[in-house]
From TrEMBL:
Part of the ABC transporter complex CysAWTP (TC 3.A.1.6.1) involved in sulfate/thiosulfate import. Probably responsible for the translocation of the substrate across the membrane. Part of the ABC transporter complex (TC 3.A.1.6.1) involved in sulfate/thiosulfate import. The chain crosses the membrane at residues 45-72, 84-105, 117-135, 167-188, 224-245. Residues 46-242 form the ABC transmembrane type-1 domain. The complex is composed of two ATP-binding proteins (CysA), two transmembrane proteins (CysT and CysW) and a solute-binding protein (CysP). It comes from Sporichthya brevicatena. It is found in: Cell membrane; Membrane. This is Sulfate transport system permease protein CysT. The lineage of its organism: Bacteria, Bacillati, Actinomycetota, Actinomycetes, Sporichthyales. Belongs to the binding-protein-dependent transport system permease family. CysTW subfamily. InterPro entries: CysT_permease (IPR011865), MetI-like (IPR000515), MetI-like_sf (IPR035906), Sulph_transpt2 (IPR005667). The gene is cysT. PROSITE patterns: ABC_TM1. Keywords: Membrane, Sulfate transport, Transmembrane, Transmembrane helix, Transport.
Length: 253
């Protein structure tokens, strides 16, 4: 009974919409699909989105791990507030995030930093919305780690770098890969947080989701569907590879 309900729900919510998009993308045949995803503007948007998503995931793996470490191992005034702020991008509508970033880094910036319609602005917006995925993935693992192994390594003269590489990293690797995959998947499909601050300049700061929206507006649904399928395929492959690698790392540990 439970399996049947789960399968039905998965089919209605995930599989059928994906099948509909895939069918639409091949409405003009394989050649039409290929032409749609390799058009200069589409190729530029996909390449830029892929590159910036990888960059954002890598940055947040480092920064997110550091924040998770501080939240787990250190005690300081306002720790509860910081913990709550980490979850803010989960609850905040992404268009609101774009407005906030525009207010801070726009033409009337109170800190005199104008990043509107630049690639750094896109990176900044995606960093904001993807940070919690890494922190909340790594944090529970850090909470479960036994500090005695670190203390023993330190007592034997191991440096902090060696302790992290030999003691902590093997245990954290599956969580880091999972967090990186989630951050990448969120970044590659993000729209709201970049729509204002990023500018959406074709072949420059336009991400794939903005390109898709533009194709819908100009009544080219097949092109929009084709790029959507390309994004879905990239996300699925990245998440699958990271899951397999993470599972192997967990077994070795």
């Amino acid at each position: 009974m439970g399996l049947g309900v789960a399968t039905l729900w998965l089919s209605l919510i995930v599989l059928l919409p994906l099948a509909a998009v895939a069918t639409k993308s091949f409405e003009k045949g394989p050649d039409g699909f290929w032409d749609a995803v390799t058009a200069p503007s589409a190729k530029s948007a996909l390449t830029f989105t892929l590159g910036v998503s990888v960059l954002v995931a890598l940055i947040n793996v480092v920064v997110g791990t550091l924040i998770a470490w501080v939240l787990v191992r250190d005690e300081f005034p306002g720790k509860g507030v910081v913990n709550a702020l980490i979850d803010l991008p989960f609850a905040l509508p992404t268009i609101v995030a774009s407005i906030v970033l525009l207010s801070l880094y726009g033409p009337r910036s109170p800190i005199n930093v104008n990043l509107v319609a630049t690639k750094p602005a896109v990176v900044l917006a995606l960093l904001f919305v993807t940070l919690p995925f890494v922190v909340r993935t790594v944090q529970p693992v850090l909470m479960e780690l036994d500090a005695e192994a670190e203390e023993a390594a330190a007592s034997l003269g191991a440096s902090n770098v060696v302790i992290f590489r030999r003691v902590l990293l093997p245990a954290l690797a599956p969580a880091l890969l999972s967090g990186a995959g989630l951050a990448f998947a969120r970044a590659i499909g993000e729209f709201g947080s970049v729509v204002l601050i990023g500018g959406g300049i074709p072949r420059d700061t336009e991400v794939a989701s903005q390109y898709i929206a533009t194709q819908i507006e100009v009544d080219r649904p097949v092109n929009a569907a084709a790029v959507s399928v390309a994004l879905l395929a990239i996300s699925f492959l990245v998440l699958l590879v990271l899951r397999v690698v993470g599972a192997r790392a967990a077994r070795r540990h």
